[in-house]
Design a protein that fits this description.
This protein is α/β, with parallel strands linked by helices and 419 residues long. The protein folds into 3 domains: 2-156, Spo0b-associated Gtp-binding Protein, Chain: A; 161-327, Rossmann fold, CATH 3.40.50; 351-416, 2-Layer Sandwich (GMP Synthetase, Chain A, domain 3). The chain has 9 helices and 18 strands. The strands form 4 sheets. The chain has a 6-stranded mixed sheet, with helices on both faces. β5 (93-97) and β6 (103-107) form a beta hairpin. The chain is elongated. The two termini are 60 Å apart. Bound molecules: guanosine-5'-triphosphate (GTP) and magnesium ion (MG). Guanosine-5'-triphosphate (GTP) binds at residues 165, 167-173, 185-187, 189-192, 213-214, 278-279, 281-282, 307-309.
Amino acid sequence: MFFDEAKIYVKAGDGGDGVVAFRREKYVPRGGPSGGHGGKGGDVILEADPHLNTLIHFKKRSHFKAGRGEHGGSKNMAGAMGEDIVIAVPLGTVARHAETGELLADLVEPGQRVIVAQGGRGGRGNVSFKSSVNQAPKMAERGLPGQELWLTLELKLIADVGVIGVPNAGKSTLLSVVSAARPKIADYPFTTLQPNLGVVELDHRDLVMADIPGLIEGAHEGAGLGHQFLRHVERSRLLVHLLNGAAPDPLADFDQINDELRLFSPKLAQKPQLVVLNKIDLPDAAAHWPAVQARANDMGLEALKISAVTGEGVPALVAKLFEKLDDLPREPLFAEEVPVFTLDEDEHYFEIEKLPNGWRVTGPKIEQLAAQTYWGLDEAVMRAYRILDKMGVHAALREAGVEVGDTVFLDDVELEWVW
Ligand SMILES: Nc1nc2c(ncn2[C@@H]2O[C@H](COP(=O)(O)OP(=O)(O)OP(=O)(O)O)[C@@H](O)[C@H]2O)c(=O)[nH]1
Ligand SMILES: [Mg+2]
């Protein structure tokens, strides 16, 4: 398969901070809590856009950031949500986490959207921490950072037209004259070792044509090279069956290749075929034409004759390809992999590390707590300690040998241990 590739950096918006505030009312010395929530940060979204054909636009721009959530207001006002950013990609784009390789999105439907980086949650204002025992909480949460990561984007180009035939039929020559592709061409079999793809244009429309290595008897069992590449044309909508007009018996080749297709995959054998006799510039090839045409007609197939070298019949072939494709539905691309967005498996998991000057605790929940807590507010700190206790962090630290007065880093927040 042919890939177009790009690497981009995405950063979702940070969540806005929650606020500590109290109502001021006439005759009421101290009103209830009224600190609003911070807004959620914007998400980074990929959207499949049918008007795009390549990933080339990411050469110009490779960094994308969504908006941050606003902080909460004092009068119970929630902060505004950060704005999402929508990145348009062509159909057939697969997005992976650049470091882990994890599949994040496989965009196949026009307009399909997938969130690839989640905006951070807004922090809760002190309204949320009011309880029967604490009518006036002096604590709130800070917003969480938005996810940020590098993505690799790969575009799987699916050929609309697959050119099949025996070695030396002139498949690569044909591709080279109808597209900008420059495949290797030579007068011996198996010149083509890898599929070549080219874009064929006509009146502002385009189609993708694939030229694969030549097929021989036994191809379905792995003889020659064609076998591994038949999959490549399995998704194409139309096959051009190219016959080598210079061969002693092009029709025998034709039958042979059709047998191989059937044996490899019935689905492939049923694909619409256009029978094309090549090398018609040679007298021997021209002599084969009436028989080829008759056979194709018997099978209900259309036949054309061309010379890829002189160009005779080539424009008619190109026009025919576009005409045929107009009537053939696009296959849904592929559903081998389902898009998933996984969160960290065990969010309570943490690790303790001994540093020369203290200790460091890390883990997904620890990271969240460190970012979320207003470390200057006693009540917020007490709450954080309670959560750490429930998670078993205290016990683990004690076991590791932490003593009162030691320095403990919660992710990157420095604390003096007081337990
Ligand atoms: N006279 C004549 N020769 C042609 C024509 N088309 C291709 N050839 C020649 O046929 C030979 C094989 O051409 P390729 O395009 O490499 O054939 P292929 O089908 O890609 O071959 P493999 O990659 O080996 O399967 C080359 O020497 C071409 O110049 C044609 O229309 N007329
Ligand atoms: Mg070739």
